[in-house]
Amino acid sequence: MATVEIDTLKAVLYQALTRAGVAPNVAEVCARIHTESTRDGVHSHGIGRIPRFIDYVKRGWVDVDAIPTRVQQLGAIEVLDGHFGVGVTNALYATDRAMELAQEHGMGLVALRDTTHWMRGGSYGWHAVEKGYAAILWTNTESCMPAWGAAEQSIGNNPLVMAVPHQDGPLVLDMAMSQFSYGKLQSTRLKGEQLPIDGGFDESGHLSRDPGAIAATRRLLPTGYWKGSGLAILLDALAALLAQGRPTHAIDDVQKGSGGGSCQIFMLFDPEQLGGRDACNAIVEGIQAHLAAVTADASGRPVRWPGGSTWRNRNSVAPLDIDDGLWREVQALAL
Amino acid sequence: MATVEIDTLKAVLYQALTRAGVAPNVAEVCARIHTESTRDGVHSHGIGRIPRFIDYVKRGWVDVDAIPTRVQQLGAIEVLDGHFGVGVTNALYATDRAMELAQEHGMGLVALRDTTHWMRGGSYGWHAVEKGYAAILWTNTESCMPAWGAAEQSIGNNPLVMAVPHQDGPLVLDMAMSQFSYGKLQSTRLKGEQLPIDGGFDESGHLSRDPGAIAATRRLLPTGYWKGSGLAILLDALAALLAQGRPTHAIDDVQKGSGGGSCQIFMLFDPEQLGGRDACNAIVEGIQAHLAAVTADASGRPVRWPGGSTWRNRNSVAPLDIDDGLWREVQALAL
């Protein structure tokens, strides 16, 4: 493991991105978001995603100069076309725009189509709560998981983010519809371990905890079996409907890499106008206190709330441990 | 099993409800909704729920004369107080009101607080798609499931409904955050069977497929383990925030039965204003055709989409098979 200061990581990512042709202002934002994801422990969508992002830029799958344009304005709803621009800045733009609409209407819904991979969905949930807004956000994706009952990849893992603000520890959920990510399969396999529960199917079609066997079949298990499969299908249909864009099977045809041509939904809510800031804080504190007081199971660990451990990471300035090979690869991209 | 004509069931439910003091117009709606849920195969929230509903009415936990009143109007958002009125008619009122707002604004969000059990959440999803609207709906509940890592009931199962219309088979998802319902535990136990996958914890704290053992501990498994637990927590916080009402731990203190004092969210979208009816139909048809063409797993069954089997039930007028004892119990309530 390499030990890397946060500011060093950000500077190297900025260098790598500008060297790939990303404009300085866009590279600055992307370097910050990828650094934050790394610091928050989500290396797969932080530094780990930089080489692939740069590859997509070089292939022309991400248009680093495109900016979102408005397709429709309908009360508190705005539909944007992302023109295959940078997924991170497109998504931040949409989040900020939805906040403006929420300030005006109590809630804002921005639906973004023809965008590219937003990396870690949680980034926009954290962005929202740091500005004092509650949020429901999701994306559809290309097929990367079998529907329940299917032998082949046929639905997206369609990450869903929900967030409620509090200045001392907001609730932030960031969940994909697969029980585990490919990143988790890889890191578990490299440690020579098995998954703690079934995570997909092996070659013979049986449920398995073997990360290598699952990665080989690409038959990830939807979270909650039929339930996560159904939720992925509905998130897909609603994203395509609201953004007037592509559902998963049509994203498959775009062939511009993971997330290229996807739809994203950004619903932001202003607690100031919905009972007030104090009431929102009381809800978050009440839920956290309730969970803290619950009897733990046999693990003996206190019950955690979504966002709790990330919140602690986000307040740390300690240097980060980064995989040696990855760090060398990204440094080389910055030269 | 008793064989009961649909119209007979509805008439008997109407009689039972009016005999319990429910006004004719309210009883008419409730009898229809409970009959439809029974016909759709959801007996637990159809005829099966009538004795408990009538018990709640007799205890004064449901005020059969209360009607929702407006607390706040904010653009496309409306906050209602349900005054512990009948959950079904409160929820239908909220759905209809959200449709009116959606007609005006493209989307409508009605947040309802101090309401009672809405029975089967899917009823309102089906109601929405039959009127041509897409929907995202959910409720919070009292604690009925342990949070992930907890040994005791501490979160709600907080059912979530998502629906996208199509005149020949809409997509309708209706999922609780527990992997199985208590109704499913009971019916599986009565058949002397085991659950197909783990559904909760037994007395020794181990994951179990034994429906009797799980019902005894009341330690239901959240769907997707930590994921369904996290989603339940965020659905709870957002419901309480939007409705300016009670989160799960505060519903626990109300002590007016299951669902008494809960919050419900009704988000309705008008496809006419979001790309148009044809585009919405094309999304639904495209997803269904894609799933129909997918290679099935070892079961060999075609891959299903959420709402598909219910859609077929809804178009049937065949008499219903109803548990003998339950049918006698409900008939006695109607005398």
Automatic annotation (TrEMBL), chains A, B:
InterPro entries: Mal/L-sulf/L-lact_DH-like_ah (IPR043144), Mal/L-sulf/L-lact_DH-like_NADP (IPR043143), Mal/L-sulfo/L-lacto_DH-like_sf (IPR036111), Malate/L-lactate_DH-like (IPR003767)
Alphabetical list of Pfam families matching this protein: Ldh_2
SUPFAM superfamilies found in the cross-reference section: L-sulfolactate dehydrogenase-like
Spans traversing the lipid bilayer: none
Entry keyword annotation includes Transcription: no
Keyword entries, A-Z: Oxidoreductase
Gene Ontology molecular-function annotations: oxidoreductase activity
Protein name, entry field: 3-dehydro-L-gulonate 2-dehydrogenase
Origin species: Halomonas huangheensis
